[in-house]
């Protein structure tokens, strides 16, 4: 009997919690059965039933040059044939570190790890070790991976420390995390005025992509920079998603703000497990074996993952890559907006470099509350109508979408034709 997505999902559920190795993949916020993919090439995915989809998830960001890019695949094959992992330094990981630094000069030193979570977890520990302080500030709706200190939701009052947002996180851990509202500069002022001497770091997505896409309000990032400098806290830009996605220099170049530490992931591995954290040399020199802040990883900087990262960054570093990527992404969001308007559906969309947000509300949201006010029922119907037409969007109203260099004019035209039909269906409902 040939496998179907449903039969594969049922079988997976017997061995893997929810049938998935990361919760968002389970389609719980949109309903229905997740697609089990068996291959991908360029902008397209193929599921176990042989059905093809135009992909706007791109493995949540890493597939920026297109799936199975020949140069990336060849680099991985050649590296693998020389051995998968040595647990010892290799020349290639220094090359990757140097290449990242050449585009993100604020990262005077960096360390490679195997995921974005490891990068942010390590950066938080480093900030605490460097400052000798315990409190950290994060923003509601921003996601920085699943380290205990970061699975925290806002406390009852502005200055009350956070409460765990996940079972298994001790109250004791959560109370060191203050959770504020993204884009609310008054709150951050008040928090630093009252608790500035206790704050080790502020960690922020410089362009938020985990509450859907929300851009920083004018002056918000600059205010964070000023306050961290004034109170001796470290400013951590979590660029796991925005790094090499919104531009070659990340969001820190786009908004001309220099963080003390930056975390990276996704694109720098090109689809293989690579993360990184780095920043000011005097801070990074506190990391073992140079300093007292411990951090380690068996497969950190392994040659196969590094080969994928190097090949990917060499492609995105070619002249015109981000101009073309940004133009394609804007063509998508402008086309969707026009199609929705023609159908009379309340909708808005925006692009920042190669990432985009879609919202079933008339105005672009500037805060988490405004994103939450969007019509999620309509999003779910749109998601499934597009899926039925072979367009694979992020299976959640609270995720950003991603375009790759492989999304050519024909791919975008097919997407917009499907969207017009879907908006018409929505309008009639
Ligand atoms: P990973 O541990 O998943 O590699 O990275 C965590 C992380 C850290 N910081 C930011 C800004 C991130 O966006 C992420 C991970 N992003 C999600 C997408 N919403 C990954 C998808 C998933 O969790 O399956």
Per-chain topology:
Layout: H1 5-13, E1 37-41, E2 44-47, E3 52-55, H2 70-81, H3 91-103, E4 109-113, H4 116-131, E5 135-140, E6 152-153, E7 163-164, H5 171-174, E8 177-181, H6 185-195, E9 199-204, H7 220-231, E10 234-238, H8 250-254, E11 261-264, E12 275-279, H9 281-284, H10 303-316, H11 321-343, E13 348-352, E14 355-359, H12 368-372, H13 376-388, E15 391-392, E16 401-402, H14 409-428
Parallel strand pairs: 3-15, 5-8, 5-9, 9-10, 10-11
Antiparallel strand pairs: 1-2, 2-3, 4-12, 6-7, 11-12, 13-14, 14-16
Helix pairs in contact: 2-10, 3-10, 6-7, 11-14, 13-14
Ligand KE4 binds next to helix 4.
How would you portray this structure in words?
Helix 3 (91-103) runs parallel beside helix 10. The protein is built from 14 helices and 16 strands. The protein has 429 residues and is of the alpha/beta class. Helix content is 38%, strand content 16%. The strands form four sheets. The chain has a seven-stranded mixed β-sheet, sandwiched between helices. The chain is globular and about 60 Å long. The chain has two domains: 5-68 and 319-428, Aspartate Aminotransferase, domain 1, CATH 3.90.1150.10; 70-316, Type I PLP-dependent aspartate aminotransferase-like (Major domain) (Aspartate Aminotransferase, domain 2). The longest helix is centred in the last third of the chain and has 23 residues, at 321-343. The structure holds ligand KE4. Residues 22, 24, 60, 115-117, 120, 143-145, 205, 209-210, 238, 240-241, 265, 399 line the site of ligand KE4. Ligand KE4 is lined by residues 22, 24, 60, 115-117, 120, 143-145, 205, 209-210, 238, 240-241, 265, 399.
